[in-house]
Design a protein that fits this description.
single chain; 5-stranded mixed beta sheet; 3-stranded mixed beta sheet; binds copper (II) ion; Immunoglobulin-like; 3 helices; 22% strand
Length: 213
C-alpha cells in the first residue's frame, strides 16, 4: 500500500511538475512568441527594411547618379530637343490634294515668313500617274506659270521638272491616284508666289497662290 501511495504521490508530483513545466514552457514559448512579435520580428523587419532601404538607397543613388549622368548627357540633347521642338513650332504643316478632275483642293496657301513648311500633298483620285499625275511646284517670283508649264511638259522622264531649273523654290514628286508625298522647305521671303502642277496641260486648272506673310 505504501508503495502504491508513494508511486501515486510520485506520479502526482511528477504530473504536477510536468504540468507546471509544460505551462512554464508554454508561457516561455508565449513569451518568446510575444518577444518575437514585439521585438525580434519587428526588429528584423526594421532591419530588413533598413537593408532594403539601404540597398534601395544605394541603387537609388546609382540610379540617381546614372539618371543625373543621363540627364547631364540628355541636357544638351534636351536643349537640342527644345531647339528642334522650337523649330517644330515654326514648322507649318500644309495639306494639299489633287483629284481626278484636275483640281487642287486649295487655291491659296498661307504661311508666315521664316517658317519651315511641311507640305503633305495627296492625290485623292484613282487615275494613274501617267494619265492624271499631279505634283506641287512652287515657282520663284516673276516666273510665268504658263510658260513654265509648257517648258516642263518636255521633261516627262524628270517628273516634268526641268533638270537644274532655277525657276523652282520647291516641288514634290509626281504622284498618281491614292498616293501621298511630303516635302519640307523653308518659306521664301514675304510675298506671293505661284504654285502649279507641272503635268502637261494641268497648269491652267491646277494653280494657286502661295502667300508668305
Ligand atoms: Cu496635275
Amino acid at each position: 500500500m505504501n508503495k502504491i501511495l508513494r508511486m501515486s504521490l510520485m506520479m502526482l508530483t511528477l504530473g504536477l511538475f510536468l504540468i507546471s513545466c509544460g505551462n512554464g514552457k508554454k508561457e516561455e514559448q508565449k513569451m518568446k512568441v510575444q518577444s518575437y512579435d514585439r521585438q525580434e520580428e519587428p526588429s528584423k523587419d526594421v532591419a530588413h527594411l533598413q537593408d532594403d532601404k539601404g540597398t534601395m538607397n544605394e541603387e537609388d543613388m546609382d540610379k540617381a547618379e546614372e539618371a543625373s549622368m543621363e540627364s547631364d548627357a540628355e541636357t544638351p540633347k534636351n536643349k537640342k530637343g527644345d531647339k528642334t521642338s522650337a523649330d517644330q513650332e515654326d514648322v507649318v504643316e500644309l495639306y494639299l490634294t489633287g483629284n481626278d478632275k484636275m483640281k487642287y483642293n486649295k487655291k491659296e496657301l498661307k504661311v508666315e515668313a521664316g517658317s519651315t513648311v511641311k507640305l503633305v500633298f495627296e492625290h485623292v483620285g484613282k487615275m494613274s500617274v501617267q494619265t492624271m499625275g499631279h505634283n506641287f511646284v512652287l515657282l520663284k517670283k516673276g516666273v510665268d506659270k504658263m510658260a513654265f508649264g509648257q517648258e516642263a511638259s518636255s521633261y516627262a522622264s524628270d517628273g516634268y521638272i526641268p533638270p537644274n531649273t532655277d525657276k523652282v523654290i520647291a516641288h514634290t514628286e509626281m504622284i498618281g491616284g491614292g498616293k501621298k508625298t511630303t516635302i519640307t522647305f523653308e518659306a521664301p521671303p514675304k510675298g506671293t508666289y505661284d504654285y502649279i502642277c507641272s503635268f502637261p496641260g494641268h497648269v491652267a486648272l491646277m494653280n494657286g497662290k502661295f502667300i508668305v506673310e
